[in-house]
Amino acid sequence: xxxxxxxxxxxxxxxxxxxxxxxxxxxxxxxxxxxxxxxxxxxxxxxxxxxxxxxxxxxxxxxxxxxxxxxxxxxxxxxxxxxxxxxxxxxxxxxxxxxxxxxxxxxxxxxxxxxxxxxxxxxxxxxxxxxxxxxxxxxxxxxxxxxxxxxxxxxxxxxxxxxxxxxxxxxxxxxxxxxxxxxxxxxxxxxxxxxxxxxxxxxxxxxxxxxxxxxxxxxxxxxxxxxxxxxxxxxxxxxxxxxxxxxxxxxxxxxxxxxxxxxxxxxxxxxxxxxxxxxxxxxxxxxxxxxxxxxxxxxxxxxxxxxxxxxxxxxxxxxxxxxxxxxxxxxxxxxxxxxxxxxxxxxxxxxxxxxxxxxxxxxxxxxxxxxxxxxxxxxx
Length: 380
Fold this sequence. Notes:
- The chain is of the alpha+beta class.
- 23% of the residues lie in helices and 36% in strands.
- The protein contains 5 helices and 24 strands.
- The longest helix is centred in the middle third of the chain and has 32 residues, at 115-146.
């Protein structure tokens, strides 16, 4: 109780002093000093620097281009997919392939058998033998007509028969070539009813539509072959972003199905029309072709397309300290006996990317300014 009374008396004396005319200047000596000190300058000792694993750095320049997030798939170019069809109908034989099996260019895939093949070879040999006679007759009638011994109509008839057979022979030779039969090596002893179907590319068997023993009609598909030597990435962009796309833009590709974190590609073709889904197709080539062996046609991918090169000044995000909704960095002002004297500088930040943040132009910073890029949060 005595202590309580004593406290009350102290308060009364304080107010009594005020009532007795003490000026405000007399009371200034008992005002509490501001608790928040200035943070313009900070001292840093060598011991602090080492203990807190701090680090120095400088302003860097990096490409902070605007990105467009896209999705797409791994594709085989048009020339990498071949459909094997029957130019002439025939019965399938010798088909022993399975889907996924590797094939080489020039390999026999299967055989087609048809009596029509025999007829074409026979007509070719007959026309070839007739041509020699018709050519001799044509030359004879030409000489007789020139010497006015024979009538013109005999010469014209011989010429027509010769030219007609010559054209027929050329047409039959072309058909034989399509059937993989060499006309120059054809003779009555090697006429055959079965012709081989060769692979036009190196690659793999993607699908098999023909059945051994079944008749494969003209233009019907027998096999689909796939060549994976030059895969590309097909991306989808929406109509609103079409004007931002340009050939040569870089693309960072990633897929959850691969151990590779990301790989780079470059835009080489952009479709010149918008499809019915209001989309624009983008084709990109892989810059590192060794990555192709890790990819499978049809595989889903995610992509970040760099729209525009924008070189900006950046610092690691750890260099920036936020104090009362303001951003600061600490720069080395001078070296002291025990460590360093740092100056805090307010900065305006731009976009962040890959652990770095853009520093908006600040006249007090240059390329030689030494900046505390790690550990500054413990000093402010």
